[in-house]
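Sequence and structure are kept together here, with a separate record for every protein. A complete record is shown below as an example:
=====
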Amino acid sequence: MTTPHAATAHVWLAIACLLLPWRSHADLVDDCGALVGAPIQGGLVWGQVEVDHTVMLDGEPVLQTPDGKFILGFGRDAPPSQLLEIRGQHGCTRELHVAAREYSISRVNGVPQRTVTPPPEQLARIARERESVRQAKAKRYQRPDWLIALQRGFDWPARGRISGVYGSQRFYNGTPGSPHYGVDVAVPTGHPVRAPGPGVVTLAEPDLFYSGGTVILDHGYGLSSSFLHMSEVLVKVGDELAQGDLLGKVGATGRATGPHLDWRMSWGAQRIDPQLLVPPMPKTP
């Protein structure tokens, strides 16, 4: 005899196997269902509930597709425990244990001092640009692009040497900066930058003070990618991109000491590690 909880678990497990075809099982399975992905700082997990149920994470509602699919993200400094609640007739609760990570410290010298300690006349500009970025990331397109990307697997937007990793903290000219929330790929100026998954462009700026040429691509349901320091921005706000579409070219604009792509991902206000969602970087000549 199948219990209500078991029925829910079967639905979650089915979507788990669908979302990651290279995995043969869900990573977390108990009486509350099945989730794909490991709860880890910088990571994502995802699953599905019955359509008349709602998902809450630490008391906050989680966006769901019409058929109950959802994703959860954990930031760089996520606490070690978070409460997942499924509310409905077959509701349940689960304590998610979020694994901690160790982050490296690096020192970067030679950065223009004006970007380390911005002059007063630039503060208003920086504030405006931060608000533009915040508004772009706050959009909530309820499109299934994230699901399509997870089914196929995200692609690297540029391929080359990985020169910076998620979570590390940098000291610019001896001054501690904010933690690094992306993965850096060092390639020459002009190298193409392509959409790692489908989505809608919510920000396209050629020259932000810190990040230079910047594009934000919304994958739907709170998941977005950001591409920084580009020499050229080849899309505009509202463009719908398919996986692999050209969106810009690598550069060294903004606060950068050399040409590279800084690729970042966010789930809502949580900064996600893109490197956890792609295969190993292919070897290049």
User: Anything to note?
Assistant: The two ends are 58 Å apart (CA to CA).
